[in-house]
Each structure stands twice: as C-alpha cells, then as structure tokens.
Amino acid sequence: MLEDEVNYLSNSQQKDVSRLINGFYQGEVGKWKIDFTTDIVLSRENFDQYSGEIDAKNDSSTINSFSKAHNNMYAAKLIVTHPLWKGQLKMGTDYTYIRRRDRFDNPQAVLPSTNSLIHEKKIAGFVQWSVALGQLNATAGLRYEHAVTDYWEKGVLIPGQSKTYNDWFPNLSLDLPI
Prior knowledge:
Distance between the termini: 82 Å
Structural class: mainly beta
Number of helices: 0
Shape: elongated
C-alpha cells in the first residue's frame, strides 16, 4: 500500500568564462641572456541550482543556491644571466598577484551563506652564482621573498587568516659524482 509519494525537481545552470594570456621573451643583449615570462588568468564561474519537492500531502520545500567565483592572477618573472669568472651569475625577480572572490547564497537559509575575498601578493628577488671546477659543480645564492595575504569574510578583514612574510633563503649546493 502506497503511503507517500515525493516528486523532486532540480535544475542547474552553470556558466564559466576564462581568459588565459601568456607572453615571453628570450634573447641576448651582449653577454647578457634575458628570460622574461608573464601570465594572466581571468575567470568567472556562476552556478545556480533550483531544487523543489512536493509529497502526496502537498507539503513542499524549495532550496535555491547561487554560487559565484571570480579569479584573477597576474604573474611575471625576469631572469638575467651573465658569465662571471669560470661560472655564471644569475639574477632575477618574480611577482605574483592573486585575487579570488567566492560568494554562496541560499535565500531559504537552509545552507550557510558565504562571501569571502582573498588577495595574495608575492614579490621576490634572487642572485645566484654557479661554477664548474672539474667534476665539482658549485652553486651559491640568496633569495628574498615578501608575501602578503589578506582574507575578508563578508567584508570584514580576518586578521588570523591575513599574514605578511618577509624571508631570506640562502642556498649552497656542491655536486660531485662518486
């Protein structure tokens, strides 16, 4: 014997738009080798979902959700190389900027709404010297990074998730076949 019947209807709509741009240059000016790369990523994602159900007693429920994500990323890197003594001197810098906004809404308040924004910025510079002395390859360098992350939830900056870093990264490498 049938006691209840539930009819369920769901409809989803998704729209994504992405743009990817890349540029690079590799060349030489005198004894200097130049390597430059840049990337840009822009994307927009929208996802809307409508769900409803009704049972044999005409009890009904509706859940709608609307989700949006917007992402931007800009990055660039420059490396220049020049002969020095019996080795090569390499210097460079790189920069990255990321911005992401996520928003989720549920008008019926069955699911929690979110509205977050993240900004991440990093800039770095480095210098490195490499030399081959017979079978021994030696590399020494130093890198400095400055990184900032800011996180907002519903328009309020969240200090516990927003950080700034300033770090030095020295390196030394010796390679010798055994």
